[in-house]
Design brief:
The chain has five helices and seven strands. By secondary structure, the chain is of the alpha+beta class. The chain has a four-stranded antiparallel sheet with strand order 3-2-5-6. Strands 4-1-7 form a three-stranded mixed sheet, with no helix packed on it. It starts with 10 loop residues before the first helix and ends with a strand.
């Protein structure tokens, strides 16, 4: 069944009452804390910090729900050829290197790229 997009959000499944898209859930099943950036630079896969990029954390054996004040589909179509890039860094990487070194040398521990269709098929749950 096609998802209906409302002006204030992404419909019942895609947003909360304030219009924030709350579908993207990251599940860390490992014993390692991770920092991550959501990147909006496809097809350039280097780590780029820009207006949209924000650093988040997902602790070992925990869940993080990433919220966005619009629909993922709309944002990704506008900026990123409908691709979402998740860049993950282990805590040791962040403690050993400063942000500029990580960015300049592209020291990403794990990178995952998803289309909206792939995220839909996974029910917006990404496991590390």
């Amino acid at each position: 069944m096609p998802r209906v997009h409302l002006f204030s959000g992404c419909g019942d499944k895609g947003s909360n009452i304030f219009g924030f898209d709350t579908r993207l859930t990251l599940l860390n099943i490992r014993d390692t804390n991770y920092f991550y950036y959501i990147s909006y630079s496809y097809p350039q896969l280097k780590l780029i910090e820009n207006f949209y990029s924000t650093r988040q954390t997902v602790k070992a054996k925990s869940t993080d729900i990433y919220t966005l004040q619009c629909c993922w589909e709309e944002l990704l179509m506008e900026c990123c050829d409908s691709q979402l890039i998740l860049n993950f860094f282990k805590r040791a990487n962040y403690e050993k290197n400063d942000r500029e070194t990580i960015r300049d040398q592209n020291l990403i521990d794990t990178q995952m790229i998803f289309t909206v269709d792939q995220l839909d098929s996974m029910d917006w749950l990404v496991k590390l």
